[in-house]
Amino acid sequence: MDDRPIGMFDSGFGGLTVARALIDLLPNEDLIYIGDTARYPYGPRDLEEVRGFAREITRKLVEEHDVKLVVVACNTATAAAMDALRDEFAVPLVGVIAPGVRALLSVTENGRVGVIGTVGTIRSGAYQRAINASRPMTPAGRPVALTCTACPGFVELVERGDPQGDEALVLAERLLAPVRAAGVDSLLLGCTHYPYLARTIGEVMGPGVVLVSSADETAFEVRALLMATGLGRRRGSTPTHRWISSGDVGSFVRLGRRLFGPEIDQAEHWQPAQGEVHRGNGHRADTSLKSPAGGES
Description:
297 residues; single chain; Rossmann fold; 6-stranded parallel sheet; alpha/beta; 42% helix; 2 domains
């Protein structure tokens, strides 16, 4: 048994979808979550720069917080950095791409599947490689056909607290046109922010398309890893959840509570050492935000 915490990070709030799935599945585990809100969104950034951010945050989790496992709860960071992180750090690492692909392939019936993600994630080819490596076939024996589409602007809608307004619907209708035209029957939300847009995306795609999130599948992978390695936490004491933001802490708590729940009642500030920080008003509190139906990281 190992009572050290699990570490997790994302460019902002999207990884909270994975944190929620993990806490629900593994309620006894301690968790330390870092939202790099000062440098979001990762999607438009150069992958080498994102790799540097991921290494910096992972080093902080390992060296300062002594985590036993790191969940890279960001698709862009997973695409950019997983190989480098595994080479550099000895702790187990779990990303969100492989679990999402497994979930996507398990639900398709017609073999036409779609992935939406940030510009960086789609440009990296990570999902295309992951699906090609599995050589999936339909029940009728035909190869699975994949359509990938970048959705710039989705992350900013979530980070502004506006995932279900008219702007979101108009943007979704335009950005989702390629996957609609491809006739997909299942669509992977290839960014941990996107489940917060699930209601809008579902409205555009229609009832015949299954929306797939990697959050639950990632939590299952973490549980399996803990069981296989004996790293699970002993039962008994009340688990703790720590929330850390590189941006404005007050805004992180306000929007985090709306997206995640009352467990985010306070947060700590961390000043990153590298990279241009976000200077806009992307983290304003929006009191009109409704509770999300489910979620560019």
